[in-house]
Amino acid sequence: MLAKGTATVQMLGDLRLLRMQRGLAATVEVAIPPCGFAASVLARDLGLPLERIEAVLVNHQGFRLDHCIRSGDRVAFVPKEHLEKPPHTGPPIPLNANSP
């Protein structure tokens, strides 16, 4: 039987806040089987809602959630924050409180 390796996983933005609100770490070391598994499986195992994930960074390169995570990978889940926060379309926002 082959031993499992590990991967370092980090949650970013709103996903980080979600984990912290649940009393869980935003960066974790997880066991990875020799054959690896899809990033979507890892996200579900970590309790991350798939519909809130934009992409996964693996070793500083962006991938979809079907990408296979392997032992030794450095993983970061990127949230869909930009879809939840519409751009500002009103008048210019003053840079300080004393501006008109």
From TrEMBL:
UniProt region (Disordered), positions on chain: 81-100
Highest taxon in the source lineage: Bacteria
Name of the protein in question: Ubiquitin Mut7-C domain-containing protein
Organism of provenance: Geomonas silvestris
